Amino acid sequence: MGSMTDPVLVDVPEEIATPRLLLRSPRPGDGAAVHEAVAESVGRLRPWLSWAWEEPSREASERYTRQARARFDLRQALDFYGYLRRDPSRLALVVGLHTIDWSVPRFELGYWVRTAHEGQGLVREAVGAVTAMAFDRLGAQRVEIRCDAENARSAAVAHALGFVLEGRLRRHRRDGQGSVRDTLLFARVREDA
């Protein structure tokens, strides 16, 4: 994929199957499942994700899902909603490629997991699958993971999948309460894939 290709024309899979998950692009109507998962998990997500300081309404969750669909179609961000294969109505996690630079191509990978599914290896499974898709199908040269410097679980996912810690971005962002936080920057490049 070179800088000459219009990102809208890039063929991105709508679904990625893993042993335990079906990762699929957002669809209208997914807001209810997103709302349920966020409502259950907001307390655990709050320290790491600025958007988790307030539980969104059902309407806001549906609006977000429809906006995520539009961003997916425009290739501005590529979110995948992870549903359990054994219970296809249950949203377990969200993983996505954001801050995309198609001229490289370079992607930042973000993720969160529903509280009930923490510690089961589902995040590693989903992040591994989306990382592989980025390199194999989208021609990625670089995939980054950024996480709060205190988020040991998120950093462990990056380490387990062969991402290299490239640095600590000091005083890089504010959390939902306005505190300034450090960010860890991990990356895999094509040669690592």
Structure explained in plain terms:
This protein has 193 residues and is an alpha+beta fold. The chain has a domain at 13-141: Gcn5-related N-acetyltransferase (GNAT) (Aminopeptidase, 3-Layer(aba) Sandwich). It has helices spanning 31-45, 58-73, 122-136, 152-160; strands at 15-17, 21-24, 78-84, 87-101, 106-113, 142-148, 164-174, 180-189. Strands 1-2-3-4-5-6-8-7 form an eight-stranded mixed sheet, sandwiched between helices. A hairpin with a 2-residue loop joins strand 3 (78-84) and strand 4. Helix 1 packs across helix 2 (58-73). The mean pLDDT is 88.
Q: Give the overall average pLDDT.
A: 88
Going by CATH, the homologous superfamily of the domain at 13-141 would be Gcn5-related N-acetyltransferase (GNAT)
User: Sheet with the most strands?
Assistant: 8 strands, mixed
Number of strands: 8
Instruction: Please indicate the percent range of residues in DSSP E strands (runs of 2 or more).
Output: 25-35%
Determine and state the CATH class of the domain at 13-141: Alpha Beta
Q: Any idea of the CATH topology of the domain at 13-141?
A: Aminopeptidase
H/E element order: EEHHEEEHEHEE
Distance between the termini: 17 Å
**Helix amount:** 25-40%
Q: Can you tell me the residue ranges where pLDDT is under 50 for at least 5 consecutive residues?
A: none
Task: Please give the radius of gyration in angstroms.
Answer: 16 Å
Tally the helices: what do you get?
4
What best-fitting shape do the alpha-carbon axes yield? globular
Q: Which CATH architecture of the domain at 13-141 is right?
A: 3-Layer(aba) Sandwich
Q: What topology, given as strand order, has the largest sheet? A: 1-2-3-4-5-6-8-7
Coarse structural class: alpha+beta
